[in-house]
Structure formats: C-alpha cells, structure tokens
Amino acid sequence: MLNATIISYFSDICQSMGTFLHFTIAILLTFIHQAESRSVFVLKGQDVRQDVQENFKLKELEVFKWRFRSTNIVRCTDTLTVRVSPEYNNRVEFSEGNFSLLLKNIQQNDSGPYTAVVSGDKEKTIIEYLLVLQERVEPPVLTVDSNSTINDTCNVPVTCRVQITSVTSSCNSRTCSQVGGESRGAETSTVPLLSVYVAGGSIICNHSNQVSWAIATKEIVELCPMKSDSS
Ligand SMILES: *[C@@H]1O[C@H](CO)[C@@H](O)[C@H](O)[C@H]1NC(C)=O
Ligand SMILES: *[C@@H]1O[C@H](CO)[C@@H](O)[C@H](O)[C@H]1NC(C)=O
Ligand SMILES: *[C@@H]1O[C@H](CO)[C@@H](O)[C@H](O)[C@H]1NC(C)=O
Ligand SMILES: *[C@@H]1O[C@H](CO)[C@@H](O)[C@H](O)[C@H]1NC(C)=O
Ligand SMILES: *[C@@H]1O[C@H](CO)[C@@H](O)[C@H](O)[C@H]1NC(C)=O
To answer: Which compartment or compartments is the protein found in (predicted)?
Structure first.
C-alpha cells in the first residue's frame, strides 16, 4: 500500500525520464526528495503559513515568487512591489518583511507542491512544501470481545474499529498488546493510525492522523474491579 503510493508518486518522474525505475531507486529518491521538501499537513478549512529561511533578501532586479503548479500566487520585486494573482485575491496574505505566505481556507484542490522561487540571472527554487490536506478523523468504537478470558491477571480482549479497519488487543491494567487486525505503518504515515493503550486507568483507542484525533475509552475498574482495587 505504502510502497504503491511511493511508486505512483514518482511515476511522473519515471515517465519523464523514460526509464524503468526499480523500487530501491524509488526509495532512494524518497530520501533525496525529503531532504529538500517538507510535508505540511492541514485540516480542511484551516489556514497555513509557509515561510522561507530567515534573513532571506532579494538582490537587485531579482523577483521572488510563491508558485503552485503553473500559477505564480504572488510575485515580489527587489523594490518590494507585490502582485497577487487574481485567482488568489482575498485568499492569501504575503509578508514583504519575511516573504512568508499565508494561505487561507485550505480546500482539496490546494493540495500539492508549493515552491518559493527566485528569478535573477538564473531561476532558483529556495524551498518546497508539499501541502497535504487531511480530514478530521472519525471517532472509533471500542468493544470488549468477551469477558470469559478475564482472569486473575485481568487480561481483557478488546477490539477497536473504524469503518472497515480494526485492531484486536489484549489489555491488562498496565498495558495493551496487539494480537490481531490490520497492522499500521509508521506514525509518519499519512494513513490514519489506530492505536490501543492504557492510560489513567482506562483502555484507550486513539484514531489519529497528523491533524486530528478521536478516542474511545473503557474504564479498567469496570472490567476487572478486584484487580484494580488491589493495584
Ligand atoms: C513572517 O511575518 C508574518 C507576518 O508579519 C508573521 O506572522 C510570521 O510569523 C513571520 N514568520 C517568521 C518565520 O518569522
Ligand atoms: C479550487 O476549487 C474552487 C471551487 O471548489 C475554485 O473556486 C478554486 O478556483 C479552485 N482553486 C484552484 C487553485 O484550482
Ligand atoms: C461478563 O459479561 C456478562 C454479559 O456480557 C456480564 O453480565 C458479566 O457481569 C460480565 N462479567 C464480568 C466479570 O465482567
Ligand atoms: C490469564 O490469561 C492470560 C491470557 O489469556 C494468560 O496468559 C495468563 O497466564 C492467565 N493468568 C492466570 C493467572 O490464569
Ligand atoms: C491520541 O493520539 C494523538 C496523536 O498521536 C496524540 O497527540 C493525542 O494526545 C492522543 N490522545 C490521547 C487522549 O491519548
């Protein structure tokens, strides 16, 4: 799944190079890519500010641009004359002081790469952001599967679900260990994460992505009163 995403992400590059790209090369490209471009995760409807490095200054006759695909969102000359593209009127605020761009009310079609470009004798990209729009996650549903295996050590089998995804864990008053269900990628994955753990005397199922989270809880004391009393 993740591998497929990486490969499809780079398929444009592959095609333009006209070469077959082996998966290991795709991985290598991922690392190179990450070195110069950052992902910024934004909840739909929110505003986002994109900065350039501190102390950036334009030299004589240079033009600075924030670019999205083929549109120059904003242009700024070395004399700080600023022009905002009509498409972005009322949607952006540009700071001449530090060249940052505030993009308001992010929608689906705002996703993609934003570059800060300086044109002088040559054109140079000084920074790139990959804007990733995410929706607010849905609350998960946490259920106790059966209490027949709740014994003296208080092992509670629980399942946490969101739509078609579920995780099955065995929890006691201190910790949970996953016993089944879909295993998830790293926390940096853009796929929402479903994790089950114990905190503050409750079993917690946390459904999260980079911009939001929602939980469902069960109090341990209700599941195994005697064990909780003694500990
Ligand atoms: C750039 O300027 C804007 C507006 O003055 C400010 O909100 C933002 O925090 C500044 N960014 C940095 C990195 O200083
Ligand atoms: C994004 O879609 C909205 C309508 O949903 C449209 O008004 C806007 O111009 C589009 N923006 C871009 C950059 O395509
Ligand atoms: C086990 O579950 C049944 C019904 O679901 C409930 O009546 C009973 O009290 C539970 N037992 C314990 C020890 O939680
Ligand atoms: C309680 O159940 C767990 C797994 O269901 C098992 O590993 C453990 O040994 C059991 N403890 C006792 C005291 O029966
Ligand atoms: C749920 O997970 C998110 C992301 O990992 C975290 O920021 C948040 O604090 C967690 N919430 C609870 C109640 O544990």
So the answer is: Membrane
The residue range of the domain holding 149 is 141-230
pLDDT at 229 over 70: no
How many whole angstroms from 136 Cα to the centroid of ligand 2? 21
Distances (CA, A) of 30 to 9, 23, 26, 161: 10, 11, 6, 32
Cα 169 to middle of ligand 4, angstroms:
14
Residues 90 and 162 in one domain: no
Residue 59 maps to a domain = yes
Q: How does pLDDT run across 126-164, given as a tens digit for each residue?
A: 999 999 999 999 999 999 987 655 666 778 889 999 988
Question: 0.90 cut: is pTM over it?
Answer: no
Residue 147 domain flag: yes
Direct distance between the N- and C-terminal alpha carbons of the chain, in angstroms, rounded to an integer: 43
